Amino acid sequence: MTTTFPEGFLWGGATAANQFEGAYDQGGKGLSIQDIMPKGIMAPPSEEPTEDNLKLTGIDFYNRYAEDIALFAEMGFKTFRFSIAWSRIFPNGDDATPNEEGLAFYDRVLDELEKHGIEPLVTISHYETPLHLAREYDGWTDRRLIDFYEHYARVLFERYGQRVKYWLTFNEINAIIHAPLMAGGILTPKEELSKQDLYQAIHHELVASARVTRLAREVAPGAQIGCMILAMPTYPLTPNPEDVLKALQAEQANYAFGDVHCRGYYPGYFLRTLREAGVELEITDQDREDLKNTVDFVSFSYYSSVCESADPSQEAGESNIMGGTKNPTLKASEWGWQIDPVGLRIVLNDYWDRWQKPLFIVENGLGAKDELLEVDGVKTVQDDYRIDYLNQHLTQVGEALADGVDLLGYTTWGCIDLVSASTAQLSKRYGFIYVDRNDYGQGSLERYRKKSFDWYKEVIATNGGSLTA
């Protein structure tokens, strides 16, 4: 690594309400789409919540938040990314008045973060559209969700705007292309969803994000508001120009979301995609004005890269949400996600050069099966594989900083074990903190520090100085 991390760099961890809060029926909360997704995005939803849905209990952060935040503080977190559950504030999503019990819960979370000097980073909507909005309106296919979301965001800004500096509008907004239920609250099965309805839903989310960006500046002028993108750099499988073009087009499908957030209008290549798909978006003059409200920064998740080939015989990568083909030069995690630390440096340079907006890595981590052991009378996990993964990626972050990239911070995904979004398992663990619960819902929910806990604590204390090249 050729540089140090800047003073004030925001080290921390990231979570999502639906994956770790639990308490799905406490505090006046309504149901969200996640409450009927017991197998994650790998299976169709159920009609009602079922006992095998681990997200209903999560890891019980709702009742253990003070204990967990104290552990984050022990590691030295400068920031903590969490989401607010929309259905905890508006149980149906289209309610006229908010649920005070839900608002009070997040007041208590913010109290604990302030007590420990940890900066909150809040995601307004993280894959948890209220179930009523999915059933009644088919999620973001309906324009009325723009107003419901803006009403929800206004309540958050008015309540917490003086306490929260960093906000994200939608989690991994580009994932709606591949996971329309999870990312768009769209109950119509993906194989039955028309391109017209899908792209109209995308437009509605982009308009809503822009409106709320403007609203934040009006209601909480000291706040910074950003978009959040699932980053998955795409390489051509061969030097064949047809493969290079295929890779570019795959990248553009994701770039479009950042381009609109950063530039305020639809790029030409995206308009061509719509034309060739026979899609005519309903765009009002007001929509075009709204889209001009561009973000302050760009945040993103990064787990792996993929390849693309124009050769139809090339096998697609089955484990990647965003598709693509496997890279023969890279190893993969236990869940088939290819490990590519250099890809993170590439993304950072690419996004910085493209948008010239400060960046924020808000998800990065290794999902793995951990074994709880007793070492010198203390229960822990010897997760050297996670330390190695994070060290390699953070070393590349340091290289990107030396390249001149403007980076606000880095929050590892699932800093405490939580339920996987893709598979709804707890055995796919990311955390520095082991939570005693298994895929069958059994366990004490006790928390144990892994070996990586002390490693990350040292990284933060030295502002990256303890990383090894």
From TrEMBL:
The active site is at E363 (nucleophile). One of its GO terms (molecular function) is beta-glucosidase activity. Pfam families: Glyco_hydro_1 (PF00232). One of its GO terms (biological process) is carbohydrate catabolic process. InterPro entries: GH, GH_1_N_CS, Glyco_hydro_1, Glyco_hydro_1_AS. It comes from the Bacteria. Keywords: Glycosidase, Hydrolase. GO terms for cellular component: cytosol. PANTHER family: 6-PHOSPHO-BETA-GLUCOSIDASE ASCB-RELATED, GLYCOSYL HYDROLASE. Belongs to the glycosyl hydrolase 1 family. This is Glycoside hydrolase family 1 protein. The lineage of its organism: Bacteria, Bacillati, Actinomycetota, Actinomycetes, Micrococcales.
